[in-house]
Amino acid sequence: MWWLLIAVSSYIILAVTSLIDKVLLSGKLSDPRLYAFYIGILSAAAFLLLPFGMMTAAAPYLFLLGVAAGMSQIYGSYFYLAALGRFEASRVVPLIGSLVPISGFFLTALVSGGRAVLGAQELAGFILLIAGGWLITANGVRINKKSLGFVFLAAALFSSSVVLAKLVYLQLPFLNGFILMAFGSTAAALTFLFSRQVRRVVFDRHSTDRKNKPNILFFSGQALGGAAFLMQNIAVAMAPQASVPAINAMAGVQYVVLFFFTTLLSLRLPGLVKEKVTPGALIQKIVAIVLIMFGLAIFALA
Question: Is 55 helix (H, G, I), strand (E, B) or coil?
């Protein structure tokens, strides 16, 4: 079950990326439009794979599906980052982390005509992964009506991206589909240039808005994020269609690793990262880790 190992490895890498994002969004690149623009525009690096992919022309509907998958990923990132900037992370992250695999489950069943549905054993693992992902991040979560629009849009776009990508990979070679998604991501990024603020920061070399300029930390994080995104797409291409939502549900692995990283860094570098863990919260996170491990074990043994 190589797709499972690749997916888990991608989330471990994403934990490092999330830690970098946490530092950047606390003071650097605080505008989510700029952050989403840079993420999307860096997707153009995938065009370097053109000599090795796109050997066959995609049918128009597959081209549209691939582009839509890439655009959904970038717009989902924007709404996710906007929610983080406007509302408490302890409310936003668990909600989106739970809604993405759930909406992906129903979307997959819908687009497959009910044929791609998890069996009873895999469904149990799927539920454990969602529950563990919720517990590892939840901290007195209360639903804020103002945040619901951002949360639902981010979750719907993220899940749509993965489901659409799988439809493309079912009919096209991997590199073909991946390049189509990169085209969509780049196109979505360019739409943020309609914002005067984004244009000023991106094109004005003498702009005084230095905090929104990308730096080496940002590019390092995006390089890691790009590698993780590539690995996730490989996992999506390899996994059975019914198991694709489970890849999203494995985000709990990212939260577990991120929890360990932030806890260690808060002890060594308290000025950079703060992670205060009470005994009750520690027990909650341990239970969450156990649930995630059982969920992964079920998929590994299924």
Answer: coil
